[in-house]
């Protein structure tokens, strides 16, 4: 059987508009909204293949939570060093690109700081290429950039990363699909079963409205909360541009997550 023709960007834009209209109709009808993006969001093609089809397993209820923890990754406070949060100093020379700092606070639903939490990030280089064998698109790799970092939140729930601004990159969701520049964030929680994953975007990106992953967050305000704020006071003269991004774990201003594992 011949493979179906890939959708074009125009077709995806129309699908996004249809999904948005369907969402707005459910809001108008007072249908309770799920707090996070749909697991199967048709314009994001691979979500159709990858979403769970069985009811989710409640680990804490059906299994022994301690046994789950024994078989899961763990980390100790001493595993995370000061250098891990500086992605520009992990190689002999500095990476190419626009040096940035990204900082903010990890907060609970009442705005209280969440302290001592492991935050991990991963991202493409300035040319939009991941240092990963699955990324084969013809943009240059940077020998001075791996694109992976981690930090522990401080007593104020604060975190800060120094990195370079990632480039947009093509992916094969549809013809003409380019992801807006973004940084992936993982929040480990106090146990592996609490891990949350999300993405941070940069303000004013013209690709936002064409991106089915960002658009799978159908609530406008929630989508805005995934976009960092350019913070001139965080910029360092002759050195780096500053961005501010808070992550709220829960409640009406929660940062929407793409996946919790
Ligand atoms: O699900 C995916 O295929 C996919 C592709 C590119 C991304 O940047 C991403 O976050 C997810």
TrEMBL record:
Q: Family, per the entry?
A: Belongs to the intradiol ring-cleavage dioxygenase family.
According to the UniProt entry, its GO molecular function terms are: ferric iron binding; protocatechuate 3,4-dioxygenase activity
Which named protein is this? Protocatechuate 3,4-dioxygenase
Q: Which InterPro entries match?
A: Intradiol_dOase_C, Intradiol_dOase_core, Intradiol_RC_Dioxygenase, PCDO_beta_N, Protocat_dOase_b
Q: Which GO terms describe its biological process?
A: 3,4-dihydroxybenzoate catabolic process
Taxonomic lineage: Bacteria, Bacillati, Actinomycetota, Actinomycetes, Kitasatosporales
Keywords for this protein: Dioxygenase, Oxidoreductase
Organism whose genome encodes this protein: Streptomyces noursei
Annotated region Disordered: the residues are 26-48
The keyword Oxidoreductase appears for this protein: yes
Residue ranges annotated for the Intradiol ring-cleavage dioxygenases domain, each copy included: 102-130
